[in-house]
Write a structure and sequence with these properties.
about 45% helix, mainly alpha, about 5% strand, about 80 residues
């Protein structure tokens, strides 16, 4: 799958929360990128851990993930760079 960018837990939280101090910077940084962005199941685990049991935030996180803005894929051994020692 070809992707144009990765997104992590902190960036997702900042995009969803207009009161987050990094919200505007994340919106500016991600707005020129072509979607979808790539994330992993581990990032989603962190996202929902930090969102907790607050219904509005849980709903916003699911809506973002279902919007097509993000693709979820596992990162395997073949995805890791080969280091020349």
């Amino acid at each position: 799958m070809a992707v144009n960018g990765l997104i992590d837990t902190g960036a997702i939280l900042a995009l969803l929360d207009r009161d987050d101090r990094w919200h505007a910077m994340c919106v500016d940084a991600f707005s020129p990128l072509r979607l979808p962005l790539l994330t992993s199941p581990a990032i989603l685990t962190g996202l929902f851990h930090l969102v907790g049991d607050r219904p509005r935030e849980v709903d916003a996180a699911w809506a973002f993930l279902r919007s097509g803005s993000v693709s979820v894929a596992s990162i395997g051994e073949v995805d890791l760079p080969v280091l020349n020692s």
